[in-house]
Amino acid sequence: MSSGELPHSPGSIRWIRDDDVRRLLTWDDLIKEVRQSLAAFSRGPDHPEGVVQPLRSRIPVADDGLMLVMPSLAKEQRTLATKIITVFGGNASKGLSTHHALILLMDACTGVPLAILDGELITEMRTAAASAVATLELIEKKSKLIIAILGAGTQGRSHARVMHHIFKDCKIRIWSRKRETSQALATTLASEGIVTEVVMSVAEAVKDADIINTCTMASQPILKAEWVKPGAHINSVGAPSPDKQELEEELVRKATIYADSKVAAYSESGDVIKAGASVFAEIGEVILQTQKAKKNSTTIFKSLGLAVEDAVSAHLMYNLLMQENKK
């Protein structure tokens, strides 16, 4: 059984698996919800349509492990949820996913638990959806794009999928430290009708690229300013800790930086912190038209991942499953 009531649980708490998410959740629905959540977050916690979300709690585990606890309330959507996620970079060498997560969804009016969801696929997809939202807000050209994917793990895969979804005629290049990993991803994507090119170096991947997606577990910068063409847009979803970087400091200082959360960027992003850079705006402020989209500049969307993105994604998934069960 793919989903159902949890055994021995009070009420009717649903258990929603990644298989359900894979079957029911579409990019169009998810991008719409994530876009609204980014705007709501930038309205602030005191706004009647805003988001209440503290900075996530971080617990280091062993040498390369991390546990994050991420609660949020989206007022307009009446969505209350908490995600618990672990990130263990060393899992890749063990044939395990580097990220594991659970999301607890509650009724925002009563506090009654509604569902527990596998959080791995939702995390993978909502992160890519946020990058899609930022990209659509910040780029000028929207056809015949050259798109680079740096990293061939879960986020590399998800970003390739969402970029192909929103830019049908794009050219996608893939790079990772291990060529066999890049090739395996290219083969998977080809089976889905997504044609990609595997390249040997970061410089080759990003040459003349309009959009660059850095989706790595890098601790030191892998992307240099000299390789990035003026006016390119970068979605940086790796390096989620103050001690890690994906982007050369010169590149970060020269670019116009947008973030999902300014507070998170200044507290958690090694790319921003080590470069001593300023975040120009939250992407939600661009959506609300309270800040400008500098489309002719080199731009960076620094994505740390918002708990509200998980909350609205979980709520959307819960509603889709309830609708399916009524048929």
Structure characterization notes:
The protein is 36% helix and 25% strand. It has 327 residues and is of the alpha/beta class. Helix 3 (120-138) crosses helix 11. The longest helix has 20 residues, at 307-326. The relative contact order is 0.17.
Give a quick rundown of the structure.
Helix content is 36%, strand content 25%. The chain is built from 11 helices and 16 strands. The strands form 2 sheets. Strands 1, 2, 3, 4, 5, 6, 7 and 8 form an 8-stranded mixed β-sheet that branches.
Topology of this structure?
Layout: E1 3-5, E2 14-16, H1 18-24, H2 27-43, E3 51-52, E4 57-61, E5 65-74, E6 79-88, E7 99-107, E8 113-118, H3 120-138, E9 146-150, H4 154-166, E10 171-175, H5 179-191, E11 196-198, H6 202-206, E12 211-214, E13 233-236, H7 249-254, E14 256-259, H8 262-268, H9 270-275, E15 279-282, H10 283-287, E16 299-302, H11 307-326
Parallel strand pairs: 2-8, 9-10, 9-12, 10-11, 12-13, 13-16, 14-15, 14-16
Antiparallel strand pairs: 1-2, 3-5, 4-5, 5-6, 6-7, 7-8
Helix pairs in contact: 2-3, 2-11, 3-4, 3-11
Q: Kindly, what is the distance between the CA atoms of the first and last residues, rounded to a whole number of angstroms?
A: 17 Å
Shape: globular
Please state the structural category: alpha/beta
Helix content: 25-40%
Determine the mean pLDDT.
93
N-to-C SSE string, H for helix and E for strand: EEHHEEEEEEHEHEHEHEEHEHHEHEH
Number of DSSP E strands:
16
Put simply, the count of helices is 11
The main β sheet shows up as:
8 strands, mixed
Question: Beta-sheet strand percentage?
Answer: 15-25%
Low-confidence stretches: 6-10
Instruction: Output the radius of gyration.
Output: 19 Å
